[in-house]
Amino acid sequence: MPSSQRNFIRSIILAAILGGIFATAQAPGAQAAYPERTVTLLVPFAPGGPTDIIARILAESLGRSLKQTFIVENRPGAAGNIGMGVAARAQPDGYTLLLTSTAIAVNPALYKKLPYDSFKDFAPISELVDSPNVIVVNAKSGMNSIADLVAAAKAPGAKFNYSSPGIGTKSNLTGEELKQRAGIDMAHIPYRGAGPAAAAVLEGTVQVGSVALPAAEAMVKSGQLKALAITGPKRWFSMPEVPTMIESGYPGFVSETFSALFAPAGTSKEIVDLLAKHCREAFDNKRALDMAHASGFVVVAGTPEELTAHMRKEIPAVKALVERAGIKPQ
Fold first, then answer.
1. Is the dihedral of CA 327, 166, 187, 242 positive or negative?
2. CB proximity list for 169: less than 8 A, separation 6 or greater
3. How confident is the model over 23-36, as a mean pLDDT?
């Protein structure tokens, strides 16, 4: 066979081999290593809030460990419902993720119509951090325990009210659970934020405050407010002298705000598991832990399965509490 013919045959064979390799690389289902482009962490609240702070800690760490850019995009409005609705409609490719608060578990009980389904539209990745609420009174009130509060509220002629950061917040639900469990009557006075709600106790506008712990901690440590109990499962690391509600005689009384990461439903298990792994690593360093603590959180960095179980427990529990409290969905 002439050499020119042999060369021609070799060229055909080489072209076929290269064509097969190229076709395989471009075949449906073939994917480049994730992530190959910028990933957006969608936060359904305004910049500067607790959830936003956690998102920025996570974005920085994931960017380093996955060697890709992670950006935080804030979509505030309607108690987080606008941003969560946007995330629910995003492509399930891992490039738009939702980092939200307990609102994803609370809002189904508070709103008749939502632009998302908390179960069907999201794939849980990791519960990142938790923060308890704290029950506070004015330091001059003479009350030093939950038992003192209950006794004072049940006294003949007593008229008690309590402040919270707003209707439907975890702090509001904490106050309602306290009322129901203790059998006391307290009128709810909602404020625009935990800071004003704590200040109202200091000013004497209300007798009791149910607020996120960071908003009251400085006033407690300065001696202006008295913390009667926190609502976490164990005592708080920076206020070890304050008992939990469980220690105060209320078994199972745990009411916390979480920040958690979700993907749109349909995102591959491989991507979800990869992100969950890196979420755990993101908070496994002193800088991230210190930043979380400074924002009033303890680190959880749990698994997708743990977050799923938490959601399945939390959503019906909140709905039942809202119904018992007579809070009407909007």
1. positive
2. 106
3. 60
| Cβ atoms < 10 Å from Cβ of 307 | 23
Measured between its terminal Cα atoms, the distance across the chain in Å is 86
From 105, 44, 38, select the one nearest 77 (Cα to Cα).
44
For residue 329, the model assigns a pLDDT of 80
- Same-domain check for residues 117 and 141: no
What residues contact residue 259 under an 8 Å CB cut-off, 6+ apart? Answer: 50, 51, 54, 55, 99, 100, 101, 127, 128, 129, 297
Q: Going by DSSP bridges, is the β-strand pair 122-138/208-212 parallel, antiparallel, or unpaired?
A: antiparallel
pTM: 0.83
Inter-residue contact 187 to 161 (CB < 8 Å): yes
Nearest alpha-carbon partner for 78 in 189, 168, 195: 168
- Model confidence at 15, in pLDDT bands (50, 70, 90)? very low
CATH number at residue 165: 3.40.190.10
How far is it, in rounded angstroms, from Cα 44 to Cα 172? 20
The total number of structural domains in the chain stands at 2
Higher-pLDDT residue of 329, 111: 111
Q: Which two tokens stand for residue 84?
A: 């969560």
* 109 and 192 part of one domain: no
Average pLDDT over residues 298-327: 93
Contacts of 13 (CB under 8 A, 6+ apart): none
Residue 121 and residue 203 in one domain: no
Distance CA 207, CA 253 (A): 21
